[in-house]
Amino acid sequence: MSLAAAQVRAGLAIRSGDAEAIYDAGRAIASDQLGRNPLRGAAWMLVACERGYDCSAGNALNEALRCDEADPACRPGANVTDLLAAQLGPADYARAFALAAEYDAKLTRGEVADRELAFGGAP
User: Which domain holds residue 72?
Assistant: First the structure.
């Protein structure tokens, strides 16, 4: 699949409003191979958590975000939000959190995220 096609699919997943689809799109957006935008991807993952995706440590689908138990920042039971905060650092996490509020509001109003919002320039 081409990069453009993958980006369009992520936009469609977000547009669906389904929390798990939004989470998966956020992971794709944040990935080094596809979206290359960890801040924007984290924001979409936070939207998914807000919309009911299971962001707990117990969710096996969150395996990719688990931290290394040898890492002093890793605490038992850390959820997706905790891990995103640790990975991004305080300033970038605050920016991702603000973006998540903006994205969630746009999704709620029907101003659906398209490819540009999902993958476009700097957040």
Answer: 3-119
